[in-house]
Design goal:
Oligomer: single chain
CATH architecture of the largest domain: Beta Barrel
CATH superfamily of the largest domain: Head decoration protein D
Number of strands: 17
Distance between the termini: 71 Å
Largest sheet: 10 strands, mixed
CATH topology of the largest domain: Virus Head Decoration Protein, Chain: A
Radius of gyration: 28 Å
Shape: elongated
């Protein structure tokens, strides 16, 4: 293919290019006024890829955007064998920011640490009367394999707490369902706010909590024999009396 300037380029099959330069869109053709000078946004040759601004997706609503801060640095590389894509130089740390959802069809391998800003590990469960329960409610297994709010003390069917109360949100949610009309995330491990009842017994930091006679509320476990298998977790704040939301370190046992 000889050199030239094109408004559009479509290739069916393989193509070998020694160089390719794509200009940023100026004033659309047919509009009044002189057409502004086109700036080279992408420049590809046999040795490098340089970009000032690269967008994927519709022009009016791009789904991703990458902006290079300088043409002298190798910010994007595509390996010819295996199709590996890397960002940044090998000796430098590169940060990729994504605003929106990220969907990966395949495996993800991480060689470093994973940091999540939210608090607990939750799993979606079918809830009996999902509209009637609220975050922080203590939940137990029902006879149909779903969950309902707890209603009795020392219930060994306790399953967890509805995630999302107070300042904590789930960090990981397992078992995403296609239809979530009657599903809620249940905290299985980590920190979560829980509704507790301290009218029968004051709660201190570190106390084990179990289900209470108050529907959906936890209480201090004072009977070790009955508490076995019915513990929700440990209180992280005291409550001298009454009912309130307190943070709990969830650890079913």
């Amino acid at each position: 293919m000889s050199s030239g300037e094109f408004d559009s380029l479509a290739v069916k099959g393989n193509a070998q290019l020694k160089s390719l330069t794509v200009g940023c869109a100026g004033t659309p053709r047919g509009t009044a006024g002189p057409e502004p000078a086109r700036e080279e946004c992408i420049s590809i040759d046999q040795n490098s890829i340089q970009a000032k601004e690269t967008k994927w997706g519709p022009a009016q609503n791009p789904t991703a955007e990458w902006i290079s801060e300088g043409q002298s640095q190798s910010r994007l590389s595509i390996q010819p064998e295996g199709g590996d894509v890397s960002f940044g130089e090998a000796s430098k740390v590169c940060q990729v920011d994504i605003s929106g959802d990220l969907k990966v069809n395949g495996s993800v391998e991480v060689t470093g640490d994973i940091y999540l800003k939210n608090a607990d590990l939750a799993e979606l469960f079918d809830i009996s009367g999902a509209d009637a329960v609220e975050p922080g409610t203590v939940m137990v297994l029902d006879e149909n394999g779903g969950l309902r709010a707890s209603t009795t003390a020392y219930d060994k069917r306790v399953a967890g707490i509805i995630s999302g109360a107070g300042e904590y949100r789930p960090g990981i949610v397992l078992d995403k369902q296609e239809s979530q009309n009657r599903c809620r995330p249940i905290t299985l491990s980590g920190k979560a706010y829980c509704k507790v009842d301290a009218e029968l017994e004051p709660i201190e930091v570190g106390d084990l909590l179990t289900t209470s006679p108050t529907a959906g509320y936890a209480m201090k476990a004072v009977d070790p024999a009955r508490a076995f298998g019915a513990v929700i977790g440990k209180a992280m704040r005291p409550l001298a009396g009454g009912r309130d939301l307190i943070p709990v370190l969830v650890a079913l046992q």
